[in-house]
# Entry
Amino acid sequence: MEARIILQIQILWNPNRQSFRRPCLHLPRFFIRASSSTSQKPRSYKGPKPSTNLVADFISRNDDLARSLPIYVGGASLLAVLFNRTVSGIAPVADASSSQSRADLLALGLAVTNLLTGLVWLSIRPKSITPVNPEGVDCKVVDSDLPTSIVSELLWGWESLKLATCCKSLVIVYNGICLIQIGMVAESPQDKKRVVVNTDKLMQGSVYRGVMKSKAQSYLANLSLYPGRSELPFLPANTQAVILQPLGDKGIAVIGGNTIRGFTSSDQAWISSIGEKLDATLGRYFVDSAEVSREKD
Amino acid sequence: MSIRICNLPFNSSFAPQPRARVSSRSTRVFARTENDTQQQQLNLSVLRFTFGIPGLDESYLPRWLGYGFGSLLLLNHFSASAPINEPQLRSEALGISLAAFSIALPYIGKFLKGSVVEQRTLPEEGEQVFVISSNIGDSLKEDLAWATYVLLRNTSTIAVLISIQGELCVRGYWNCPDQMSKAQLHDWFKKKVDEIGLADVKETLYFPQYEGSSASWDILPDGTRSLFVQPLIQDIYEPQKMDGFLLVASTAGYAYSDKDRAWIGAMAEKFRG
# Structure
């Protein structure tokens, strides 16, 4: 088995759009710009501009308050109806004889509707779980033999996961090689450096074999409950959730997150789509390189 | 590479709690993914009021009660023998404002976390189109085809358009003239897009309640309710120069949550530079 030297590549990937302005060049006046019809400046955008929805913004920010609002409204109006009755000297009798009683009854009915709706909203509040910061070292290690296009695709995958999900660690193993180990990585106690992925051990373990056999994504929503945790020593010890995505039948992507049940079903679907794409790209590259090396021999 | 029109089966829409709703316009399409068993657990249904009638959406119950009781209040008011005394006026005012609040409750409930997202409906007439420019390299064509397919599959999108330096890839249901060759269709879309000036958009645009707009936007399919435009930045050192854009449209209102938009932004990053 050849010893592979894994280089640390620091690729700047900073989609920071705020202010990266360079001083613009002032072209001298006599410069003649040849413009053809295909390269004219795009027409300025003349469509509608999005309007802000104050209600939606308020409610999304004050979720708890909005959930209990109907209860307060319902309770307050209940008391108001009774108060109105006592103040105006009419006996609080709930019958439909006078029009006053009918109006009061209808108002009471609406107040009760509001109260019940508020209770239903409170009961369906999703549990908020706090993320746990992974303990380890930050690392960015990519296999040195890969061409730039593959490296940029892998890094794109990492950036998308980091941006859109609670992912904090990513390891991709394909064809027995660890292609990329990026994000938070467990720190080895001996030399205080990152834990290297032992691909042989990983591929012989039950976790890898189970995923390869089922050919389906495996979502371990709460990693601490999972006995196969010991087969993933390169992930930080307090990684909360893990998704194991098979890349075809030759590789696996291990995605670690910092929140229990932090990956939604939408995330799972996106991750499996990205897994298929990576498998197609990597598979083609490895087939090509295998053919090239066979031709050389 | 030739441009071909293909029919994609629309499977896998994501509904943590799919409900069947009766709709007079068109049928709704549901299908579950193969990852059902691994769906994330949303902590729901501790207390859930339901009549048990399939197809009835109880979250709109406050609205119906608001309309019903409000009209009864008005009936009571106008059928009462004059003069109406003050306490009655007070409780009627209270009742009417409660009715108005109840009518607004389902709308407020839509913005709470954990609320059910509306499902997309497919347009009844019209076919799906798949147009891709022939002026671009094969690997980019493949990337575009994959990206548009994934966007259609993983979000509630029914129409997607990606433009990179003027070259387009269009997929889904669009309001375009039929009987056009693929190259002509590409040029037609390009002309329409230039009219709108979408290449000049500098930041993301999100219209969760799109009502229809000026004439050049009529390429969007009927019934479009959500629209999201994500510009592709060419160079991080020149944030004002745009390389193209990505447009997705859906027939469901409020179709693109923060997470959906984050993922669409990630897809747009793939075509940067």
The first helix of chain A runs from residue 54 to 61. Confidence is low (pLDDT under 50) at residues 1-40 of chain A. The helical segments of chain A are 54-61, 63-87, 99-123, 148-164, 199-204, 206-214, 265-296. The two ends of chain A are 17 Å apart (CA to CA).
